Recover the amino acids of this structure.
C-alpha cells in the first residue's frame, strides 16, 4: 500500500503545480504532505472502494455523500494555513478523512456533520484510529459550534450558496475560512450547487473581512437543517 500512497502524493504535487496560477503557490507545505501521507485513506472509505482509496478521485460513501479527491483535500488544508497551536472547525465530517488530516496539524479539531449516521460512524472511526484531538458533533453545520468558538481556521467541505454568517462570526481575527460557493439549482426535484468556486475568506486583526475566489471545484451541497 505504501507504493500506492507514494503515487497519490506524487499526483497531488503534480496537480498543485498545474493549478499554481490559480492558487498563487506551486506546492503545498511539507507538513500537509506529511499528513496526507500519514492518514490511511483506505480506512475512511467503504470496503468495496478500498482498492481505489489512493486514487486522486472522490469516492462514494454512505448517505449519498462523497469523500473528497485527495488533491483538493491537500489544497484546502494548505490554504487554511494551520499551525500546531490552532483550533480548527470543519463543516461536513463525512467519513472523517479531512478531520483526520487536520488533526495531525492542529491542536484541536471540531467537526460537524448534519447526517446522523455519518456523524456516528465517523466518531467511532476516528476514535478507533487514535485521532484523540477530534470532536464530532451531529448538528447544523451552517450554525457552526458556538460553544467551542472562536476558531483559528474553518473549513467547509460542502458547497454553499453564500458564506454562512455564523461561521464568519466564529472566526478569530487573523483566521481563515475555506469553502466552495455556487448557485443552487434543482434537478428532478433535488437541489444541487452548480458553478462552484473555491473561496478563501480572511478576517484581519481588526475584524475586517476580505474574500478571494480561486478555482472551480465540485462538492455535494451543504445541508443546513437542525437535527431531528
Amino acid at each position: 500500500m505504501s507504493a500506492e500512497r507514494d503515487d497519490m502524493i506524487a499526483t497531488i504535487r503534480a496537480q498543485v503545480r498545474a493549478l499554481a496560477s490559480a492558487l498563487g503557490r506551486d506546492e503545498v507545505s511539507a507538513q500537509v504532505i506529511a499528513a496526507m501521507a500519514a492518514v490511511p485513506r483506505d480506512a475512511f472509505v467503504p470496503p468495496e472502494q478500498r482498492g481505489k482509496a489512493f486514487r486522486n478521485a472522490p469516492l462514494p460513501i454512505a448517505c449519498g455523500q462523497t469523500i473528497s479527491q485527495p488533491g483538493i483535500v491537500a489544497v484546502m488544508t494548505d490554504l487554511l494555513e494551520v499551525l500546531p497551536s490552532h483550533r480548527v472547525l470543519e463543516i461536513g465530517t463525512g467519513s472523517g478523512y479531512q478531520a483526520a488530516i487536520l488533526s495531525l496539524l492542529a491542536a484541536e479539531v471540531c467537526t460537524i456533520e448534519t447526517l446522523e449516521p455519518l456523524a456516528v460512524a465517523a466518531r467511532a472511526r476516528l476514535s478507533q484510529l487514535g485521532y484523540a484531538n477530534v470532536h464530532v458533533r451531529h448538528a447544523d453545520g451552517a450554525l457552526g459550534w458556538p460553544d467551542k468558538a472562536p476558531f483559528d481556521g474553518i473549513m467547509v467541505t460542502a458547497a454553499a450558496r453564500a458564506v454562512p454568517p455564523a461561521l464568519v462570526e466564529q472566526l478569530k481575527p487573523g483566521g481563515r475560512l475555506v469553502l466552495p460557493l455556487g448557485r443552487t439549482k434543482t434537478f428532478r426535484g433535488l437541489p444541487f450547487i452548480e458553478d462552484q468556486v473555491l473561496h478563501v475568506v480572511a478576517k484581519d486583526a481588526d475584524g475586517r473581512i476580505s474574500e478571494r475566489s480561486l478555482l472551480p471545484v465540485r462538492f455535494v451541497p451543504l445541508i443546513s437543517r437542525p437535527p431531528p
About this structure: The chain has one domain: 2-216.
